[in-house]
Structures are given as structure tokens and as C-alpha cells.
């Protein structure tokens, strides 16, 4: 378990073991690559980040991850694999499941209603991006990116 404060000063715990936290996981985050670029989205207030969001009523974590990614990037993902979860100790604490996924289909020309759309960044562009949202810059994200390196061979390019 990795414990750290995010850039807003909120305590966060990250675990690579399922069901490590006492509350139900009701948020998702998706990491995917396609043609050696990261699949990201541009949130209008926070900046560039991995797609994700809240689980809706009667929806599984995997279904939420697929839906949120499609809504935010117009990219259909598949072959999802759970890699981690984290708990944010905010006023209303919440847990988020983290998945790696393959890009199945890119819907060109569609517009996103939740974000400013898809952003594709190479590793170098990602590392040097000044427009990343705050949670993309913390110690937890660094640990997640390191863990994802184990899965890179599973991504189809």
C-alpha cells in the first residue's frame, strides 16, 4: 500500500490488491495506449487526464469504465484488466478502480459532451505535458505508471 497526499493536500491510499478499502469502489480510471500514444481526455477545468468517472446505478466497474471512456474520448475500449484501486480521504471519501484496456475502435468526428475530447500523447509528450490535471502529477500516478509498464506488452497497436 502506498500512502501520499495529492497536490490539493488530501490523503490518498493506493493498493495493487483488490478490495483493500472499507468502502465500495464507485469510480473508475482507464489507462490505454494505441500506436504508442496514451489515450487521454481534456477536462474543461482540471486539464488533461486519463478518462474515468462514476459508476451509475446497476452498472459494473467494467461497464462504467467502457462507458466513461466512450463518453469522454469517443474511443471504444475492450479487454479491460483491473490493476489497482485507490481511496481518497476527502470530506466524502471515495474509492476508484484503475484498469488498463485495449483500444477497440476510434469514432472519428463524434463530439464529446463531457470533456473537450480525446488527447493522444507519446511517452515524452506525456512526461513533459504542462497541462496535466493535478492528480496526474502526484506520487500515486507515478506508481501507477510504473505498474502499467508490466502490461504494455498486452496492448495492441
Automatic annotation (TrEMBL):
One Pfam family matching this protein: NUDIX
Swiss-Prot/TrEMBL keywords: Hydrolase
Domain Nudix hydrolase intervals: 21-145
GO molecular function, one term: hydrolase activity
Keyword presence, Hydrolase: yes
PROSITE patterns: NUDIX (PS51462), NUDIX_BOX (PS00893)
CDD domains cross-referenced by the UniProt entry: NUDIX_RppH
Family: Belongs to the Nudix hydrolase family.
Protein name: 8-oxo-dGTP diphosphatase
Species for this entry: Psychrobacillus insolitus
Lineage of producing organism: Bacteria, Bacillati, Bacillota, Bacilli, Bacillales
Amino acid at each position: 500500500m502506498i500512502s501520499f497526499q495529492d497536490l490539493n493536500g488530501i490523503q490518498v491510499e493506493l493498493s495493487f490488491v483488490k478490495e483493500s478499502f472499507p468502502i465500495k469502489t464507485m469510480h473508475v480510471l482507464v489507462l490505454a495506449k494505441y500506436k504508442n500514444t496514451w489515450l487521454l481526455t481534456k477536462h474543461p477545468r482540471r486539464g488533461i487526464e486519463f478518462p474515468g468517472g462514476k459508476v451509475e446505478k446497476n452498472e459494473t466497474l467494467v461497464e462504467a469504465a467502457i462507458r466513461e471512456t466512450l463518453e469522454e474520448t469517443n474511443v471504444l475500449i475492450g479487454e479491460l484488466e483491473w490493476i489497482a484501486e485507490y481511496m481518497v480521504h476527502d470530506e466524502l471519501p471515495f474509492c476508484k478502480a484503475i484498469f488498463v484496456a485495449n483500444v477497440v475502435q476510434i469514432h472519428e468526428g463524434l463530439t464529446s459532451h463531457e470533456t473537450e475530447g480525446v488527447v493522444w500523447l507519446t511517452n515524452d509528450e506525456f512526461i513533459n505535458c504542462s497541462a496535466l490535471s493535478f492528480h496526474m502529477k502526484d506520487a500515486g500516478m507515478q506508481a501507477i505508471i510504473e505498474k502499467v509498464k508490466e502490461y504494455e506488452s498486452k496492448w495492441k497497436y
